[in-house]
Design a protein that fits this description.
There is one protein chain. By secondary structure, the chain is mainly α. The protein has one domain. Helix 1 packs antiparallel against helix 8, helix 2 crosses helix 7 and helix 3 packs parallel to helix 7. The protein is globular, with a radius of gyration of 14 Å.
Length: 154
């Protein structure tokens, strides 16, 4: 983990630390570190909201004019190809649902939520691919801030 998340409340700190570690491990294809971080992410509240918000923020920056079906297909295909060399269990359908959720096209209340383990295993793969070497911390911090603001308004 490259960023200190000590300023966050304990629950958000746990999500941030595990997400940061998982994305870093996905970026370097560190299987052992990835497995440990994913195990933590799978049991941490707010993982889906934080990772989904971070994914959306990255997509908005990389595709300011929006995404078309070709963009989505390229993202999924390239992400799966990149991950399959070290994560042969990567599931394109889960990545599609994560991408759809980040874009607001998948409502877990109406269409069923992803299994927390599948979310934890695939979310960092998608984020690391989208980051393409850029730092994750600014996106994660902004995503956690969005989650916090949303919780205050509920």
């Amino acid at each position: 983990m490259t960023t200190s998340w000590r300023h966050l409340p304990p629950a958000a700190r746990a999500v941030a630390a595990a997400a940061d570690e998982a994305v870093a491990a996905a970026s370097t294809q560190d299987t052992e570190l990835y497995g440990n971080a994913v195990s933590t992410l799978a049991t941490t509240d707010q993982t889906g909201l934080a990772m989904g918000s971070a994914t959306r923020l990255i997509l908005e920056e990389r595709h300011p004019d929006g995404l078309d079906s070709g963009d989505i297909q390229r993202i999924l295909t390239d992400c799966v190809r990149g991950a399959a060399s070290w994560r042969p269990d990567v599931d394109p359908h889960v990545l599609l649902l994560l991408l759809a959720g980040a874009l607001g096209l998948h409502d877990p209340d109406e269409q069923g939520a992803l299994d927390p383990a599948a979310l934890a295993e695939h979310g960092p793969l998608l984020v690391a691919f989208l980051l393409d070497g850029r730092p994750f911390a600014p996106y994660l911090a902004a995503a956690l801030d969005e989650v916090r603001r949303a919780e205050l308004h509920d």
